[in-house]
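Wait, mind explaining this?

_____
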Amino acid sequence: MLGYDFGHGHPMTPERLDLTLRLVDALGLLTAPGVEVVGADPVDDAVLTTVHEPAYVAAVRRADAEGVTDLARGLGTEDNPVFPGMHEASARAVGASLVAARAVWDGEVAHAVNVAGGLHHAMPGAASGFCVYNDAAVAVRELLDAGAERVAYVDVDAHHGDGVQAVFWDDPRVLTVSVHETGVGLFPGTGHATETGGAGAEGSAVNLALPARTDDAGWLRAFDAVVPAVLRAFDPQVLVTQHGCDAHRADPLSHLRLTVEGLRAAAERLHDLAHELCDGRWVALGGGGYAVLDAVPRVWAHLVGVAAHHPVGTTAAVPEPWRTRVEERTGHAAPTRMGDGPLVAVVPWSRGWDPADDLDRAVRATRTAVFPALGLDVDLD
């Protein structure tokens, strides 16, 4: 998995994955009862072309083998530099998400996690936003092909889950939900409340675009006001989630202000919804997150803990061997606790909304745009 490497200085450093799994291991989660660690092989082109155009897959292969850029297909840009092994590393990330989806759908496990996945910006014919192949979309397609009639995809990355939305825009069998910072000032500039799905699939895309500087209390209030209701209305058989942690307040590429506690709470809510609605069938993927020391390893370690039914307390100490390794390797002090501070209280939407508040207006816009198409009441549900 560490072969997915755009090079020195790129925000999408594989060190995010390395430090995460080392922390997960130091916390004892990889050997906890009921946890199984499996490998994944790169998928073949037939799998990739369930989502991606054959010409694009061929272009990625050329870029890998010959170093040939293809700017029209997003290969060789500042965001997506060409690197040796690009095709294989990207196809392996897809393979891991595919293994996860199959294991969950076949009933081998209730939950599966692939923190190397969640590459949600890749389009059918182009790389975008650090993403070469869209493993999340391939996993959803696999679930549909395996017999799932309704798949819900929920994306909590700070950036809009545009690639997955684009793939399933016209497919009423897939509900895509993205909770993100408004695209007015953040890549990819999409994900507005009015984006609700294509012809014949109205209400199948839900976009909750939040103001910059939204914190835990506001983010969780918004999530609670939209996500549970739309999921319950759609009644999915399996839940696929993307847990980009770039909404953390230390992230250098977004302007949201969540803490580890807030992002852990999002994972807990989605876990509980999977049990409520999907008989526990839950595929959890990684995604963005560029505060490599301060946020990513702790947030994803909590995700693994929640999925493994061995949650880690946010007041727990970060294991000393991991901290020592980080400090020796980077020269920077590592966090000492598994959280940032106490989680603030959340005011529920049912108490009313304030039309003068930016956050509440964003929530209201989403509810107004999509609730009627799902048979929900804008004011009551």
Q: What stands out?
A: The beta strands are 111-114, 151-155, 174-181, 205-210, 238-242, 282-285. The mean pLDDT is 98. The longest helix spans residues 86-105. The chain is about 35% helix and 10% strand.
